[in-house]
Design a protein that fits this description.
Layout lengths: L7 E6 L19 E2 L2 E2 H11 L4 E6 L4 H9 L3 H9 L7 H7 L3 E6 L9 H6 L1 H4 L5 E5 L2 E4 L4 H11 L5 E7 L9 E5 L7 E6 L10 E9 L20 H11 L2 E5 L3 E4 L3 H15 L6 H7 L4
Parallel strand pairs: 1-4, 1-6, 4-5, 8-12
Antiparallel strand pairs: 2-3, 6-11, 7-13, 8-11, 9-10, 9-11
Length: 296
């Protein structure tokens, strides 16, 4: 029998992004840039590295046409103009976007309650029948040679008995109260028992923070329904994963990259700054620029 593979991924960007207003009334949050690429493209590239064949982006009604334009519009008029100017090489980044695996854009089911589990539930019909699929929150970027998507797919190939796999990153013990911290089942160091949301410093069960990179099976949808809303009356993916862990095996994998959140303007700026310093050819100029403007 041919070994199955993980073929599909769900990437969510369906929230109000109210901390970014007014820009996010027009531009989806994950269309904000890191360099000359939007955050969402980093997610798609991570999926491509993992061999994903179809990506389902769950967007707001306002964001759906923007994503469709970005990933599907070939802007032939620009290509022709660049060609006439002898600058066709500048079109190559556009061609790379057009060459991505199949990308389907949908909107969140409006009948579902608010919460980060609802965009995932909205994509259910696209992943039914799959042995497993990825879920990625577009708030979370991972820098490094090895993306989390590939880590999840590779681990599932070795541990297909797992009911789910989630990624985690070590954080300082002084900041555990800012994250969802992983608690392991007794006698294990890689099986999830629970995720403790923002525990007090000194009372955290570990220093491993969970974030939005998951490999799930369709059984997760049994728990992503309105009757299982949790804190603040919202539908939470983490609650559904914890429910799976009660009777099944949810593995925890440490990232081989560096996870950064872009969920608010301050952390987005830090992620952008790190990106420029580490990956842009002008990154080495940042210290001198800061000195010029009196920043150091």
């Amino acid at each position: 029998m041919t070994e199955s593979i993980v073929r599909k991924a769900i990437i969510t960007d369906a929230g109000f992004a109210s901390r970014y207003l007014p820009i996010t009334k027009t531009i989806p949050k994950a269309m904000l840039p890191l360099g000359n690429k939007p955050v969402m493209q980093f997610m798609v590239e991570e999926c491509t590295q993992a061999g994903i064949q179809e990506i389902i982006i769950v967007a707001t009604p306002e964001g759906k046409p923007i994503y469709e334009d970005y990933f599907h519009n070939s802007v032939i008029r620009i290509k022709k103009q660049l060609e006439s100017q002898g600058k066709l090489d500048r079109y190559e980044p556009v061609q790379r976007v057009l060459d991505f695996p199949k990308i389907t854009i949908i909107t969140q089911d409006p009948s579902l309650p608010y919460g980060n589990g609802s965009p995932v539930a909205s994509a259910q019909k696209f992943v039914e029948g799959e042995e497993a699929f990825l879920v990625m929150y577009s708030d979370d970027v991972v820098y490094g040679e090895h993306g989390d998507a590939k880590a999840l797919v590779d681990l599932f190939a070795a541990r297909k008995d797992a009911d789910a796999i989630i990624m985690a990153q070590e954080v300082s013990s002084e900041v555990v109260d800012k994250y969802g911290i992983i608690s392991f089942k007794d006698g294990t160091d890689n099986q999830l028992d629970n995720i403790i949301e923002k525990p007090e410093v000194g009372q955290a069960p570990s220093t491993l923070a969970s974030y939005g990179r998951y490999l799930l099976k369709p059984s997760i949808f049994d728990h992503l329904v309105p009757k299982y809303t949790g804190k603040d009356g919202e539908l939470w993916t983490v609650d559904a994963i914890t429910k799976i862990a009660e009777s099944g095996t949810v593995l925890v994998e440490k990232t081989k990259g560096q996870w950064l959140t872009t969920g608010d303007p301050e952390n987005y700026f830090r992620a952008y700054l790190e990106f420029v310093i580490k990956f842009e050819k002008y990154g080495h100029k940042i210290p001198a620029w800061l000195e010029e403007i009196g920043g150091v």
